[in-house]
């Protein structure tokens, strides 16, 4: 595959959770610098970590889509400018050191915000990912930053009632299950 095809393939994996495509475009030594705010399985090397990241994002955002605005590359890196889009239909759980940091209850709102991704390539696969994301815009679209009183109260209620912790456990399990699908595609 050409570098731009690998980049498009990686984002199709994130949109779909396609394990066969993940093994086709992601190297076994793949690392994701952005996994620090994700469930632990997202930090796994190779396709497993990418599939876990896909499950994590798709659990929060229905109709997840990455609209590519521009791509540039050299021999071993691809830079992708895109818009992340979807509808916030599930809890969006952020982690710190593998533990629940923040759970944003579903709002039903659309997200549409810009990101730039830097992908490192080796042996015709994506082997490293890092991103510059406009998370402030996304959090604003979800009424979390700056927090509206109703959004703040909903997040507090989720924390106090244990719903945030339950959501974090469920999403952590989903990500781990997705990671475990590597190598188990049906023919």
List the helices and strands and how they pair.
Blueprint: H1 3-16, H2 19-25, E1 26-32, H3 47-60, E2 61-73, E3 77-88, E4 92-96, E5 99-104, E6 110-122, E7 125-133, H4 135-141, H5 149-161, H6 163-179
Parallel strand pairs: 1-7
Antiparallel strand pairs: 2-3, 3-6, 4-5, 6-7
Helix pairs in contact: 1-2, 1-3, 2-3, 3-6
Task: Give me some keywords for this one.
five-stranded mixed sheet; alpha+beta
Q: Could you tell me the radius of gyration in angstroms? A: 16 Å
User: Could you give a short account of the major beta sheet?
Assistant: 5 strands, mixed
Shape: globular
- Subunit organisation of the chains: single chain
* Sheet/helix structural class: alpha+beta
Kindly report the average pLDDT value: 95
Helix content: 25-40%
**Strands, total number:** 7
| Percent of residues in beta strands | 25-35%
Concise structural overview:
It is globular and about 50 Å long. The protein contains six helices and seven strands.
Task: Explain what this protein looks like in three dimensions.
The mean pLDDT is 95. By secondary structure, the protein is of the alpha+beta class. A five-stranded mixed beta sheet has the order 1-7-6-3-2. It is globular and about 50 Å long. Helix 2 (19-25) packs across helix 3 and helix 3 packs antiparallel against helix 6 (163-179). It has helices at 3-16, 19-25, 47-60, 135-141, 149-161, 163-179; strands spanning 26-32, 61-73, 77-88, 92-96, 99-104, 110-122, 125-133. Helices cover 39% and strands 35% of the residues.
